[in-house]
Amino acid sequence: MLVHSRTGRWATWALGAVLFVPLFALPLLVILTASFATHWSGAFPSGPTAAHYAAAVRGESLQALTTSLVTAVTASLIALTVGTWAALAASALRKGTSGPARLLGRLVDTLFVLPVAVPSVVVGLAVLVAFSQPPVLLNGTRWIVILAHTVLVTAFAHQSVSAAILRLDPVYEQAAAGLGARPSRVLLRVKLPLLLPSLNAAAGLCFALSMGELSATMMLYPPDWTPLPVLIFTATDRGSLFTGSALAVVLMTATLLALLLVSRIRTKAPYR
């Protein structure tokens, strides 16, 4: 830690606990407690039950969880591919000797970061308007939901990979090129392996963001492709707060397990 005195460290830990407990831990604890309750009229819930979880892992709820997982995985893979390609292209353009090339590189970065500056509901509306008529008619299909999620998370994949590219030591690429490796071989055998840790982190971030996306999804989802956040909103909007809490816990658990799995993937980059 940056604080070296014992008193300072204790004060830092105490301040962290004061900020963490009411802002993060307590709301999650309330949701977890509510998911096991049937009544909550006083200071504490009553009527403990696991019936909400029994309903949350079957039927419509299980289908919604599967929908969220498929949407998040598909959107994350597409976003990671497109975002990485754009980051590599923008980096190459910024290293160019001509002014127009460097300007084009900055323009690519701006375009891919733009969805972060725009509210997700605006992105959803834009996708709805753009793909509700031929020649590309996606409205009413699952693909319009996946497309909206991809647009929303690609910016984070692009930013993560762009930051990693800036930290790369160019000596590895120069050495490979000096030994006669073609640019495609340098990319596949040198640059991408060095970027694997950042790609791993970007994939986890994209997945988590897609699993929790609601605003754009509410505008686009068809009846046969209902992600779990929409089901949680619907349940709480009807007044089924305890059922919604159980669904929220299932969503958090599934997301955390998936992120744990991603974090356990060992890349070869640290050993090269």
How would you describe this structure to a colleague?
This protein is mostly helical and 272 residues long. It has a single domain (53-271), classed as MetI-like (MetI-like fold). The chain is 75% helix and 0% strand. It is built from eleven helices and no strands. It has helices spanning 6-34, 51-56, 59-94, 99-117, 120-130, 142-167, 171-178, 183-212, 215-220, 228-237, 241-264. Helix 6 (142-167) packs across helix 8 (183-212) and helix 7 (171-178) packs antiparallel against helix 8 (183-212). The chain starts with 5 loop residues before the first helix and ends in an 8-residue tail after the last helix.
Quaternary state of this entry equals single chain
Instruction: List the uncertain runs.
Output: none
Arithmetic mean pLDDT: 85
In the CATH scheme, the class would be Mainly Alpha
CATH architecture: Orthogonal Bundle
CATH topology, by name, is: MetI-like fold
Number of domains: 1
> Which percent range fits the helix content?
over 70%
Question: What is the beta-strand fraction?
Answer: under 5%
Compute the number of helices: 11
* Distance between the amino and carboxyl termini: 30 Å
Anisotropy-based shape: globular
Provide a brief overview of the structure.
This protein is 75% helix and 0% strand. With 272 residues, it is mainly alpha-helical.
Topology summary:
Blueprint: H1 6-34, H2 51-56, H3 59-94, H4 99-117, H5 120-130, H6 142-167, H7 171-178, H8 183-212, H9 215-220, H10 228-237, H11 241-264
